[in-house]
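We treat protein structure as text, and this decision shapes the records that our systems exchange. We quote a single record here, exactly as it is kept in our systems:
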Amino acid sequence: MRDPFFAPPAILTRATQPLANALALRTLPFHAHEILPAFGFYHFMNIVLAPRLSTYLFPDTYPKLSRKTKINWNIHVVSFVQSCFINAAALAVMFLDRERQQMDWRQRVWGYTGATGMVQGFAAGYFIWDLFACVKDIDVQGWGALVHAISALAISSLGFRPFLNYYGINFILYELSTPFLNIHWFLDKLDMTGSTTQLINGIALITTFGCSRLLWGTYQSVRMYHDIWLAFQSPRAEELPVPPWLALAYVASNTVLSLLNAYWFGKMIKTVRSRFDKPKEQVDKKDT
């Protein structure tokens, strides 16, 4: 399936070709026109749209927040918008890209379609912004968020080699739980802690997180590791090599994300339970 977005401008393709050659990311120039606008849009949303819209929609809450909480609020707004968009894009490609659906293990390792490249382009643009935001405000987001941003960017970037582009789309569905995570955070700040709305959202959050990141993610990881093993054992390995460092980088990044997901799942259950095990006044409303 071709990239349904507009064709990349020739000047941008030529400008990014040296970087693509240096990093061996052959399909990067075809999707630079998706990476750069995504980064620019999320940056603009973070510093302009989120503060203004939040002040307009929540005049009794947002202006009174501390500096750190405002930074976190804006980041959650960006995360909410991005996760809704990228989930819709990934699901659309998974259901509509017939070429992708017919891939065997070789194509799942080395294959590429324009549509999958488009989704990874938009995702990479967000993860570049996320990495930038984590470094800029590490005191707010913490080191765990920074490690997550680095790992996610590494996985999305390697898809432009192309390498495991097929699985990159599958792992994007980790984001299915993210809208509910952001809603949970906003409800705390809007004095709706312990409400029925937060309870329903908490159930949806834990369910989608467990299903998308732990069950679906583990299943896709096992499939991916198996395909990588087949690639190393294939008689065509000399023709289409999988450099050990490349496989190790992808597996390491994916393993880090999996471990973080398991850690966050336990922390998430504890956090959601705390909203209902204690009286509303005793709930710790610090950023989580």
In short: The chain has a mean pLDDT of 89. The first helix runs from residue 10 to 23. The CA atoms of residues 13 and 29 lie 5 Å apart. The radius of gyration is 20 Å.
